[in-house]
Design brief:
Elements lengths: L7 E4 L5 H12 L3 E6 L2 H9 L4 E4 L5 H11 L4 E4 L14 H29 L2 E6 L2 H4 L7 H20 L5 E8 L2 E2 L1 H9 L4 H7 L7 E2 H12 L10 E4 L6
Parallel strand pairs: 1-2, 1-4, 2-3, 4-5, 5-6, 6-9, 7-8
Helix pairs in contact: 1-9, 3-4, 4-6, 7-8
The structure holds nicotinamide-adenine-dinucleotide.
Nicotinamide-adenine-dinucleotide binds next to helix 1 and helix 7.
């Protein structure tokens, strides 16, 4: 259908998982989608699936993000999906681990927000959707020490952007997924041992993992004008994990 018809969307970390599902769902709803990631091989597939443009972008590189925003031009939807799950407690988290997680999970969103906002303000509006997590933004989870800190920061950054630009047509929401079946989630389950997948499933009272398409459905809503009255909110979608 055409819920995003006439809109231009920019997506980070779009090669796999949630970012990919969002880029494809935006395209299916009629948006002109610019999908980026550091994994160029997997990105190439997206062009065959309706995404208008793909390009390599490392969201840890400020100059590259700024150049890419110029290249993208008018952008009505910015979806920030890049993020890394560090496994461990405070005792396992070196300064380097801390800095890497905050750089990739939080400062990346600061970079894209700063790069795209001037154009969004000049055109009179846009919707920014950040991928946070139920872990950190809502609840604690074991061995998610710095990850949770970064995702709480994403929720706070989201509220700040929403508050600062609420009268300028900019909306900024974040999505807090629970346990979603993606390549990195499956790696984490495998690393947890033979019962890993069952352990991850057992976290949800619904008794299953979420799908990236279920996250993308919420992203389409938040990106579209249907959600015009919501901003600054951390939207949970977690199969009852935080219930
Ligand atoms: P994933 O972790 O399987 O893949 C991540 C993607 O990010 C890859 O395509 C990778 O190439 C890309 N990437 C890594 N470093 C990058 C960089 N510097 N610049 C640009 N791209 C980079 O994907 P996922 O599991 O769907 O996670 C996406 C987001 O969703 C993350 O922010 C994650 O924290 C969040 N999230 C995931 C889950 C889950 O259960 N999968 C739950 C809550 C939140």
């Amino acid at each position: 259908s055409d819920r995003l018809k006439g809109k231009r969307a920019f997506v980070t970390a779009a090669a796999v998982g949630i970012g990919r599902a969002c880029a494809l769902a935006f395209a299916r709803e009629g948006a002109t989608v610019f999908a980026t990631d550091i994994d160029e091989d997997k990105l190439a597939q997206l062009k065959k699936d309706g995404v208008a443009e793909v390009a390599k972008l490392d969201v840890r590189d400020t100059a590259a993000v700024e150049a890419m925003a110029k290249r993208a031009g008018r952008t009505d939807i910015l979806l920030n999906a890049a993020g890394f799950v560090h496994h461990g407690t405070a005792l396992d988290c070196s300064d380097a681990d801390w800095d890497f997680s905050f750089d990739l999970n939080v400062k990346s969103m600061h970079r894209t927000t700063r790069a795209f906002l001037p154009g969004m303000l000049a055109q009179g509006g846009a919707s920014i959707v950040n991928i946070s997590s139920a872990a950190g933004a809502v609840k604690a989870a074991p061995n998610r020490y710095v990850y949770s800190a970064t995702k709480a920061a994403v929720a706070a950054l989201t509220r700040s952007v929403a508050a600062d630009f609420i009268t300028k047509g900019i909306r900024c929401n974040c999505i807090c997924p629970g346990t979603i079946e993606t390549p990195s989630m499956l790696e984490r389950a495998a690393a947890a041992g033979p019962q890993g997948r069952e352990m991850f499933i057992a976290r949800q009272p619904m008794g299953r993992l979420g799908t990236a398409d279920e996250i993308a459905a919420l992203a389409v809503y938040l990106a579209s004008d249907e959600s015009a009255f919501t901003t600054g909110v951390a939207h949970v979608i977690d199969g009852g994990w935080t219930l």
